[in-house]
Amino acid sequence: MNLKTGDKVVVIAGSNKGKEGTITKILRDENKVIIEGVNVRKKHIKPQGGNAGSIVEMEAPIHASNVMILDPKTKKGTRIGHTVNKEGKKVRVCKKSNEVLD
Predict the structure, then answer these.
(1) CA angle (96 as vertex; 90, 97 as ends), nearest 5
(2) Domain containing 18: what range?
(3) Quick one: 54 and 84 in the same domain?
């Protein structure tokens, strides 16, 4: 998976298609990501002890194949490639604009 926490992505498939957000968590074993403000679900919490029950909104995971990283230059979805920079370190590169991702 070429995605990292903090990457800005756009959803390219499903009911949340077109929404943009930042990755907050990556579930590598399931190949899914959690994106801030996207795929929001309501979770009902039972009362426990002295706490009253409530309904909480939380982000559900999205499969990594349904998101695409945002190109910093064009602000559109792009694929990711890898190259070696001048210091000899492997870096991620946007395919559309050849812009280096941090």
Answers:
(1) 70
(2) 1-70
(3) no
Instruction: Please state, as a whole number, how many other Cβ atoms lie within 10 Å of the Cβ of residue 73.
Output: 12
* Per-residue model confidence as pLDDT tens digits over 52-73: 999 999 999 999 999 999 998 9
- Can you give the pLDDT at residue 102? 75
Q: Please spell the DSSP secondary structure of 21-33, one letter per residue.
A: EEEEEEETTTTEE
**Contact at 8 Å (CB) between 101 and 94?**
yes
> DSSP code of 99?
P
Residues 13, 59: one domain? yes
For the chain, give the number of residues. Answer: 102
Whole-number CA gyration radius for the chain? 17
pTM assigned to the model: 0.84
Cβ(38)–Cβ(16) below 8 Å: yes
Same domain, 7 and 57: yes
